[in-house]
Design a protein that fits this description.
Largest sheet: 7 strands, parallel
Helix content: 40-55%
Order of helices and strands: EHEEHEHEHEHEHEHEHEHEHEHEHHH
Number of domains: 2
CATH architecture of the largest domain: 3-Layer(aba) Sandwich
Number of strands: 13
Distance between the termini: 14 Å
Number of helices: 14
Strand order of the largest sheet: 3-2-1-4-5-6-7
Shape: globular
Radius of gyration: 21 Å
Oligomer: single chain
CATH topology of the largest domain: Rossmann fold
CATH class of the largest domain: Alpha Beta
CATH superfamily of the largest domain: Glycogen Phosphorylase B
Length: about 375
């Protein structure tokens, strides 16, 4: 059995990738379980219960640690997984810390970003430092991007433990859909011919929403018909600060605050351009690849492996440069977004096929179990 350990099945790129990986492995006959610290994440309904087992450690809050940790140890002793695959720094550090007292299994760390931990707060710095130190206990460290691999090496994780396996993009699910496009634009009050630019990202300072809003203001002066949509949510204080910034910039009714969207395909296909304005820290951004798979061209900032994902199908600009972002939006809108969108979809289907990605994961994990030191 393979255990995939993550904080919760909340809305997020890493969480959706865990579900995609678990479902894919389970449907290929691998015994797999998802272990979460917290209950009741919205992505729980996406887990294929016929092929994937679910385990919750019933954590009740940040400082509720003793009982969830005890439950995790007991669970591993009871189920005896061959692989414990932990995702994101808090869970990788926890798995690495507990590893000496666990029954024999192969430990895998999953890295999902290229964030410079030295610029985070003290708690995050501590967790990132622990992750790097405890990575020596992992049989393998899997980064989802080359940028993430390089960041891990800079933190002291041995290159010989690291491999890169990109995210899994289901191009059957994320696909162009004219009917959904029409419905979603109508729901947002956007006419079919109105240029619509959107960004799907949680409200977090690293995601560059301030850059997006400033770029939107610049483009709106040039192209008053343009409309903009932000898909996602976050802490109330940060959301309020963004709303105040949008008001100061005079965006008014040209900006839609869509909140969290359960039907991301509808959200993507409604756009003429998708964007990601992150300042730093990206690895393999799902929002870029998924929008491309839906036939939507992308303009994004040059963070993580974003430029490699987009290739020649969109444009990449410097982070924290609203003028460059607005100029790139204008250039793609003046080009042929439909043609570029078709090329973007072809690129994702060719380079990041779901089946090939699952094969890569399966070969890597099988080799780990079959190795002489297992």
């Amino acid at each position: 059995m393979v255990f995939l350990l993550i904080r919760a099945l909340s809305v997020g790129g890493a969480e959706r990738q865990v579900v995609e990986l678990a479902n894919g492995l389970g449907r290929r006959g691998i015994a797999v379980g998802i272990v979460t610290l917290y209950d009741n994440g919205p992505l729980e309904q996406a887990v294929d219960g016929r092929h994937v087992r679910r385990f919750s450690l019933a954590k009740r809050g940040r400082w509720d640690m003793a009982l969830p940790v005890l439950r995790l140890v007991r669970l591993i002793y009871r189920e005896r997984p061959a692989i414990l695959y932990a995702f994101l720094p808090a869970q990788t550090a926890l798995a690495g810390f507990l590893y000496p007292v666990l029954p024999p299994c192969r430990l895998v760390f999953g890295l999902r970003s290229s964030l410079d931990y030295r610029r985070t707060d003290w708690l995050q710095r501590t967790v990132y430092a622990l992750e790097a130190r405890l990575a020596r206990r992992a049989a393998l460290v899997i980064a989802n991007s080359e940028a993430g691999r390089q960041s891990a090496i800079a933190r002291g994780i041995a290159p010989g433990r690291l491999v890169v396996i990109g995210n899994l993009i289901d191009t059957d699910h994320f696909a162009p859909d004219p009917e959904r496009r029409g419905r979603q634009r109508a729901a947002w009050g956007i006419a079919a011919t109105v240029p619509l630019i959107g960004m799907a990202a949680r409200f977090d300072p690293m995601k560059g929403h301030g850059t997006f809003l400033q770029a939107a203001s610049l483009l709106h002066r040039r192209l008053p018909a343009a409309r903009f949509v932000l898909i996602g949510s976050g802490p109330a204080d940060h959301a309020a600060a963004l709303a105040a910034s949008a008001d100061r910039l005079g965006l008014g009714a040209s900006l839609i605050w869509a909140g969290e969207c359960r039907d991301m395909v509808a959200a993507y296909v409604a756009l003429d351009l998708a964007t990601l304005a992150s300042d730093e820290g990206e690895g393999f951004p799902n929002a870029v690849a998924e929008a491309m798979a839906c036939g939507v061209p992308v303009v994004a900032t040059d963070t993580g492996d974003t430029a490699h994902l987009i290739g020649a199908t969109g444009l990449v600009v410097r982070p924290r440069d609203p003028a460059a972002l607005a100029e790139a939006w204008a250039a793609l809108l003046a080009a042929d977004p439909a043609r570029l969108g078709a090329e973007a979809r072809q690129r994702i289907a060719r380079e990041f096929d779901l089946g090939a990605g699952l094969d890569h994961n399966l070969r890597t994990l099988t080799a780990l179990v079959d190795s002489p030191s297992a």
